[in-house]
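Open question from group meeting: does this chain pack into something compact, or does most of it stay loose? Before anyone orders reagents, we agreed to write out a predicted structure and look at it together. Recording both the input and the output here so the notebook holds the full record.
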Amino acid sequence: MRAVATFVALAILAAPLPAAAADDAYPTRPVTMVVPFAAGGTSDVIARIVSEQMSQALGQRILNENVPGAGGSTALARVARAVPDGYMIAIGNVGTNAAAYTIYPEIKYTNDDFVPIGLAAKTVPVIAVRKDFPAADLKSFIAYVKANPGKVNLGHAGIGSSNYLICKTFMAAAGIDVTLVSYRGAAPALNDLMGGQVDGVCDAAASVTGAIQNGLVRGLVVSAQSRMRTLPDVPTAVEAGLPEWQQQGWNALFAPKGTPQAVLDRLNVALRKAVASDALQKRMDDLGSIPATEDEMVPANAGRLVTAEIEKYRKVLAP
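Structure tokens returned:
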């Protein structure tokens, strides 16, 4: 009997921990945050700031992994297939998690494959041109494009990316047609703009502000309610004479469907602490990005935003 009792005790000790206990211990190892674009772009910059602060809140490192391709859908497809244990999450945006469903009909994931952890930041769209472009302001830029059909191009972070949507909505509002040049991320597009290989880029302030401040490219217009502190010389769309162009981007964190609620709650708490931190608030302000509000970090509210954006861009991108 004593031998049997010893065997049973050892069996109990060797048995897997109940799910609740395992969830309570989360995370016991580093978490991977998949970034759907090349290093240096808006999503990458925001991901690095957020993951650094979330790591402190979780007590475990969050490792960023850049997986560019197909406007970010390559990365999101990978996360959709990941084990739903909280050790692989993604930072997505309006392109990867809303417009992609219309742009890529054969996409390998659906909105139902993810659960939102919460919104992290909102981004400000910017149109920037090479510093020697023969147009001093937005009005003259539009006139130049119309007078030179087929000669002007704008780079973006890939078809389906948030930067691609900036291009599309800007072109529609301005009533112009330019050649769009697709890159594997915002950083490669910006590098080519600084080198004069493209005429301009559709970007977000988080990744293009430094280049504008240093005179490497010229900011043409921002889609914001007021001029940005970091780009005081770049007019808003209303000031520049294009009030129809009103747009705001966003970045949110997502986990694979089936991730335990306790794990999602831990991640959400860490996200809230990260966004509230002085370090993140300052970095976002320096970059011209807007930290998410308390309400926007509520997962249900982030989910409703995504659903609304899917419908919005289904109409915007309709043939």
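Observations to bring back to the group:
The two ends are 77 Å apart (CA to CA).
The chain has twelve helices and eleven strands.
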